[in-house]
Amino acid sequence: MPSSLLPVTNPSSRHSPPIMPPLLISKADDDDPTTRLMISSYDDEKAMQVRPLLSRTSSYSSTTAMAAPAGPVVPNGHQRRRRISSESCLPSLSGSGTDDGDSLEREVEHAAAETFLLTRLSLKLLRYLGVGYRWITRFLALGCYAFLLMPGFIQVGYSYFLSKQIRRGIVYGDLPRNRLDLYLPKNMDGPRPVIAFITGGAWIIGYKAWGSLLGQQLTEKGIIVACIDYRNFPQGTISDMVTDALQGISFVCNHITEYGGDPNRIYVMGQSAGAHVAACALMEQAIKESAEGESTSWSLLQIKAYFGLSGGYNLLNLVDHFHNRGLYRSIFLGIMEGEQSLRRFSPELMAQDPNVRTAVSRLPPFVLFHGTADYSIPSDASKTFAQTLQRLGVKAESILYEGKTHTDLFLQDPMRGGTDDMLEDLVNYIYADNPKALAKIAEAPPRRRMVPEFMLKLAHSVSPF
Q1: What is d(CA 331, CA 339) in angstroms, rounded to the nearest whole number?
Q2: Which of 55, 78, 227, 279 could form an S-S bond across to 208 if both were Cys, CB 3.0 to 4.6 Å?
Q3: What distance lies between CA 318 and its chain's CA centroid?
Q4: Counting beta carbons within 10 angstroms of the beta carbon of residue 463, is it exposed (0 to 12), middle (13 to 18) or buried (19 or more)?
Q5: Which residues lie closer than 8 Å to 458 by C-beta, 6 or more apart?
Q6: Looking at the DSSP assignment, which residues form a beta bridge with residue 331?
Q7: Is the predicted pLDDT of residue 460 greater than 70, yes or no?
Q8: Which stretches of 343-395 are DSSP H helices?
Q9: Which residue intervals make up region (Disordered) (predicted)?
Q10: Which three-class secondary structure string do you get for 408-435?
Q11: Taking a C-beta distance cutoff of 8 angstroms, is the pair 248, 268 a contact?
């Protein structure tokens, strides 16, 4: 006997095709298929509602915790380093994510939602970059690169979706993509240092899951990592990205104690485009705090240091370089809200503005990591920024890694297992005032290899970054 329950549909949806944003491309140049790109966009992401995995806190009240003195920073110039080849149960935490009784169906649904988002980001990238010869070859190289690192990606993805130490999709704001992933150490026997991490992605395909490998590595060292998602272009421009980063950092400063974090040991870190966004956010926060009568929900005094990984901080010096690398000038200027805004969103240039000299003095110490073989963003970007900050009285240093590319420090080296120079420098800085923690970390077995060496070397050779 057939069921008496019938499906209910919206009658209007049967006859109304989905509205798609018209895309008009006038190709003026074989090398730049987007020189004249006219877009009438319908922001579908803003219309999409996402059910938060955690209830959102109703207010972001400012804390009064003061940061302890930062670790030692080398005062003169940069250091050049050459790489040598080579349980206890988690306590119940207030407001934490999934319950033990979560079904497999929910995990599958979440994985499907993540896959859908990544696919949509890829299609947006293709739409804005065009299908010229240069980008066809780049995408072929990217495909080979991803295939060679696939053994590592599978292991990272498995932990990302199934590990109970990862709280995915915590809501930190009301706007689209105002979510963060929280990576928690297994041993939570006391307040833990915290890194608020802003991922890269050329300001177009950034996503919080890109920081999963780093997050999983640092939790093994007893460090909490909050990977902050933010709106990308064309969903938002650079000012939207900075706004999201500021709100995500505010959430971490005001609520990390609920997850076992130490409010006196909070660090901010960014990689590639995320390093630029994070540096802009700290500069904007410094300007806000120096303005009389300006109220803020958090303070730079809560940030012990900023770590920049393979970032660019002077856009006037990089716009032509990005164009030659395939991030065409027309697209880049659209991301940065026009040529007139390049100076405003160049932390290196803003720091030298006499009108914000007082604000610059509020900045935390800056530690900038970069590979000397980075062709996506030359290592001079970090070196000159550190030198500029030093001249202005800010504690800053650049640490250069000989022969390392844009992705070696972030992907290939961690997947190689064993000793990781950049990770060691990062951990040593965070635990500089805690020799017992450093001794315990030194006694831990080395990380296991995730990808065979020959595949890592091939990935290094074919990488489009």
Answers
A1: 11
A2: 227
A3: 20
A4: buried
A5: 148
A6: none
A7: yes
A8: 347-351, 357-360, 380-391
A9: 1-36, 65-104
A10: HHHHHHHHHCECCHHHHHHHHHHCCCCH
A11: no
- Both tokens assigned to 280: 């802009």
Query: Which three-class secondary structure state does DSSP give residue 153?
Result: helix
Identify the CA nearest to 346 among candidates 269, 272, 283: 283
pLDDT, tens digit, 9 for 90 and up, residues 160-212 = 999 999 999 999 999 889 999 999 999 888 899 999 999 999 999 889 999 99
Could you give all domains of the chain from N- to C-terminal order, each with its CATH number?
22-55+66-76+111-462 (3.40.50.1820)
Could you tell me the two tokens for 89?
């149960």
Whether 196 and 163 have beta carbons less than 8 Å apart is answered as no
374 is catalytic: yes
Q: What is the DSSP string of 78-96?
A: EEEEE------PPPP-TT-
**Is 74's pLDDT higher than 90?**
no
Q: What angle, 0 to 180 degrees and rounded to 10, lies between the N-to-C axes of helices 212-219 and 150-162?
A: 70
Which residues, 6+ apart, have CB-to-CB distance to 419 below 8 Å? 84, 86, 446
| Rounded-to-integer distance, Cα 370 and Cα 380, Å | 9
Residue from 236, 162, 244, 164 nearest 208 by CA: 244
- Give me the phi and psi of 296, to 5 degrees please: -130, 155
C-alpha atoms less than 13 angstroms from C-alpha of 465 in its C-beta half-sphere? 25
Average pLDDT value for residue range 339-367: 93
Is 59 designated active site? no
Query: Of 180-184, 281-285, 330-334, which gets the smallest average pLDDT?
Result: 330-334
Catalytic one among 255, 276, 406, 460? 406
* Active-site residue, 88 included: no
Q: What is the dihedral of CA 129, 151, 425, 419, to 10 degrees?
A: -150
Given the residues 250, 272, 346, 379, the one annotated as active site: 272
- Tokens coding 165: 């130490």
- The values of phi and psi at residue 137, to 5°, are -65, -35
Q: How many CB atoms lie within 10 A of CB 223?
A: 24
